[in-house]
Design a protein that fits this description.
Elements lengths: L4 H15 L4 E5 L6 H14 L4 E5 L2 H13 L5 E3 L11 E5 H7 L12 E4 L8 H8 L5 E6 L16 E4 L3 H6 L5 E5 L11 E2 L2 E2 L1 H8 L2 H15 L4 E4 L3 H13 L4 E4 L5 H12 L5 E4 L14 E4 L6 H8 L11 E6 L3 H5 L31 E2 L5 E3 L24 E2 L2 E2 L10 H18 L5 H10 L15 H17 L5
Parallel strand pairs: 1-6, 1-7, 2-4, 2-5, 3-4, 5-6, 8-15, 11-13, 11-14, 12-13, 14-15
Antiparallel strand pairs: 8-17, 9-10, 16-17, 18-19
Helix pairs in contact: 1-2, 2-3, 8-9, 13-14
Length: about 500
């Protein structure tokens, strides 16, 4: 199999790291870049030197994916996984970490020889299961594969790996045609204020209560029909119940949809994935099961209904639809989670580095410059980065006005909603009624309330047949603002 230039380059870089005395190297490559291909070529090269190899993954789908890829390279490998009778005679083994740990103490288990160990989804390497395996092979060379070398729990990968190698990034691979271009729509932003943070991400129970609501799910279906109808789609939900609900609402609206979760048996999971592949369903909803390793290139739309503070999880979700396919020219990302504002566009290039336990000082997240912030078009919900030279929306050509608010990110935190909503007539009446109350209480001249009203809404009240009501803090604060403004205009020091 002919490898791409960046794949060959990655292998050469890993080789150099080994020659420099490093035993464990972490390879960072985007979803869709062919990490399994790189691993297969490294195994092929090791076998030619009569070396034994062990490929380890944490899920059944990843084990079978690697086994199939090795077969394409002409390599017969034994498989260590539940339900499969493998052969320990092969000098290359592909193992499920769970099955390996469950069998290793059995009398009939033959421990594989391993000069080279490759760990898939290597951001999991700090878990006890993987650490115990590595302890059994102290002399082996180790290559970890991951698209996102970060963990929510803060455990540093630098305590496992000696060096990091980057093969490429989403921006470059898209420009070269190895990944498809993405377009992002953000029709809604959830209210996440007050949610607890647990293990570096939103508390699962609280998040589910906030997201699993009829209106939000209905909006998900409505906007999918508007933007992505007939596109093979994967939806990421906040919980199993949320995922099932989304699938049900899609079906009720005439869109064939399925659901998949970790509690389903292998046969049912494989069947629903097959249904998506064969166009028996258009939408597949899931919770935390299709974020890693799953490969279905025909998927051309990702719907994110699962807010997350994890940049790694975000990249894993959007990465499910970036692979090229003959039937698609681009992919759509429909964001109902606020992730685009929390983490930026998929093609924004991060600076990856290994962190070690002794490095306690964390760098403060720099504020994103205004010109580099995502902006949701008020006309079509398309997300882009406007500039002074090109402010118009690339999707609908709308030019944002000064009154249209850009969603700002300050220190990585969402602080403002994207769109201005027109103040309703009843709200204006209520505001004027509160001004009348203050005017009567303070003994202000006739017309004070009308002129103060005009300061806020740029017109006089349409109806003055309003009964006074006690003012809220909002009204008091507005009046205080006007007083300060007036004082400053007269040169009064406050």
């Amino acid at each position: 199999m002919q490898l791409r230039e960046y794949q060959e380059f990655a292998i050469e870089q890993i080789k150099q790291k080994f020659q420099q005395g490093n035993k464990k190297v972490l390879l960072v490559a985007p979803t869709g870049s062919g990490k399994t291909v790189i691993a297969s070529r490294m195994i092929e090269k090791a076998r030619k030197k009569n070396k034994c190899c062990l490929f380890v993954a944490h899920r059944r789908e990843l084990v079978m994916q690697c086994s199939n890829k090795l077969h394409q390279f002409g390599i017969d490998a034994g498989v260590i996984m539940a339900g499969i009778t493998g052969s320990y005679l092969h000098n290359t083994q592909v193992a499920s970490i769970q099955t390996y740990n469950a069998r290793k103490d059995n009398d009939d288990f033959i421990k594989p020889d391993a000069d080279l160990i490759i760990l898939d989804e290597a951001h999991r390497s700090t878990s006890d299961t993987f650490k115990k395996l590595l302890e059994e092979y102290p002399d082996a060379y180790v290559v970890g594969l991951t698209a996102t070398p970060i963990r929510n729990d803060g455990k540093p990968l630098g305590n496992i790996y000696d060096e990091l190698v980057e093969s490429s990034n989403i921006r470059d691979l898209t420009a070269q045609g190895y990944l498809v271009k993405n377009r992002v729509f953000a029709p809604s932003i959830p209210d996440l204020q007050g949610l607890k943070i647990s293990m570096g991400d939103y508390d699962k129970r609280q998040l589910d209560k906030r997201m699993n609501k009829t209106k939000l799910v209905g909006d998900t279906v409505t906007h999918w029909i508007k933007f992505a109808e007939n596109r093979p789609t994967v939806v990421f939900a906040s919980s199993i119940a949320h995922s099932k609900y989304i699938a049900n609402i899609f079906n009720q609206n005439g869109v064939p949809a399925g659901h998949i979760d970790s509690e389903m048996n292998d046969e049912d999971r494989e069947q629903v994935l097959k249904d998506l592949q064969e166009d028996k369903i258009k939408v597949l909803s899931n919770c935390m099961i299709l974020t890693e390793g799953w490969d279905c290139p025909k998927v051309s739309c990702v719907v994110i209904c699962r807010p997350t503070k994890s940049y790694g999880m975000y990249l894993q979700m959007v990465g499910r639809s970036l692979r090229p396919h003959p039937d698609k020219n681009d992919t759509l990302i429909i964001d109902h989670s606020g992730c685009i504002y929390e983490h930026g566009f998929p093609e924004d290039v991060p600076k990856w580095e290994l962190k070690r336990r002794e490095e306690k000082e964390r760098k403060k997240k720099e504020p994103v410059p205004i010109e580099k912030q995502p902006y949701t078009c008020v006309k079509c919900d398309f997300v882009y980065k406007p500039t002074k030279e090109e402010p118009e929306c690339p999707n609908c050509s709308h030019i944002p006005t000064k009154k249209e608010q850009i969603m700002l990110i300050k220190q990585g935190r969402l602080i403002e909603l994207p769109k201005m909503k027109e103040t309703k007539a009843e709200d204006k009446k209520r505001f004027y009624a509160q001004l009348l109350f203050i005017a009567k209480q303070k003994g202000y001249k006739e017309g004070w309330a009308s002129h103060t009203f005009r300061e806020k809404f740029h017109h006089f009240p349409h109806s003055k047949m309003v009964l006074p009501i006690p003012p809220t803090n909002e009204v008091h604060n507005f009046i205080k603002h006007l007083q300060i403004k007036k004082a400053k205009s007269k040169g009064v020091r406050l």
